[in-house]
Design goal:
Layout (H helix, E strand, L loop, with lengths): L2 H17 L12 E7 L7 E6 L3 E6 L5 H14 L8 E3 L5 E6 L4 H15 L5 E5 L5 H13 L4 E7 L11 H18 L2 E7 L9 H10 L2 E7 L5 E9 L7 E5 L5 E3 L16
Helix pairs in contact: 2-3, 4-5, 5-6
């Protein structure tokens, strides 16, 4: 038996062993990374948005406050329950949050990262990187290297995921990137939340990449602007667990988001039209 055949034999035996699932075995439910609110009943439990070992994504049209929403998520994870983050709660257990920005200059990325301290009063275990200056392959390779060379990661935010491919409509590149997300989350037992634009006048996320994200994500969150352009509503479009209740958030004059106690009536249909 030649060496190549031996290598293949060992590879597929390892996959056989690691992928087998006993239908009657005891498989633990993945622990929560992020939740919003409590379930009903006699023993209310946190309603999960994200669990460790999976990935989720936020979709919104351009300029619909997705980066502000990601700041709320980061603040809830790093700082715990605060007045601004409302019923959103991170289940960090001392783990790190890694935040990659692919879209903005270092100056503007820092403004986004600084919001977390302004919202929750701490940046402990919050590590931030601005990757706009690099090519899509360099960004992807760097993130792959960085995640495997950083210990005790809990949550990863990638804003935005389309900048890790050359073309979000390319079937092969999109499939490969989503395979990376599944590989990273399973092997490192982390949760990744990323963001992608929606197509105008549609609820569909952009390109083949958006379609692959829809198929594989644990939770798909859509943001909709209200007629008051400072307010957006977060909705759970799809979830592999229990769906969280819709909630609204607003951006104050200082540029800081906060979760509202109730949802305004009027959604801006000109900005986000359902089909």
């Amino acid at each position: 038996m030649n060496q190549l055949k031996i290598d293949y034999e060992q590879k597929y035996k390892a996959i056989l062993e690691s992928s087998y699932v006993d239908p009657l075995g005891n498989v633990s439910q993945p622990p929560l990374a992020l939740s919003y609110g409590l379930s009903g009943g006699y023993n209310p439990l946190p309603t999960g948005i994200a669990t460790y070992g999976n990935f989720s994504f936020v979709q919104a049209p351009p300029k619909s406050k997705k980066t502000f929403f990601l700041s709320l998520i980061a603040s809830a994870y790093v700082g715990g329950k605060t007045q601004r983050t409302g019923d959103m709660l991170g289940h960090r257990e001392g783990k790190k949050l890694i935040h990659y920005d692919t879209e903005q200059s270092t100056f503007h990325a820092q403004k986004v990262f600084r919001r977390v301290n302004d919202i929750c009063g701490t940046t402990e275990d919050y590590y931030t990187y601005a990757l706009r200056a690099y090519s899509a392959p360099e960004r992807l390779d760097f993130i792959d290297w960085h995640l495997y060379n950083t210990d005790n990661i809990g949550l990863v935010i990638i804003d935005g995921i389309a900048d890790l491919v050359l073309d979000s409509n390319d079937l092969i590149q999109s499939s490969k990137l989503v395979q990376y997300l599944m590989k990273w989350t399973q092997e490192l037992n982390i949760h990744i939340i990323t963001a992608i634009h929606s197509n105008w006048n549609s609820e569909k996320p952009t390109g083949h990449l958006g379609s692959f994200l829809e198929k594989k994500a644990e939770t798909q969150i859509a943001l909709e602007l209200t007629s008051d352009k400072s307010v957006a509503v977060a909705k759970c479009k799809r979830s592999r667990g229990y769906s969280f209740d819709d909630f609204a958030f607003q951006v104050d004059p200082k540029g800081l988001p906060f979760i509202l106690e109730s949802i305004p009536d009027q959604i801006d249909k000109d900005k986000y039209i359902k089909i």
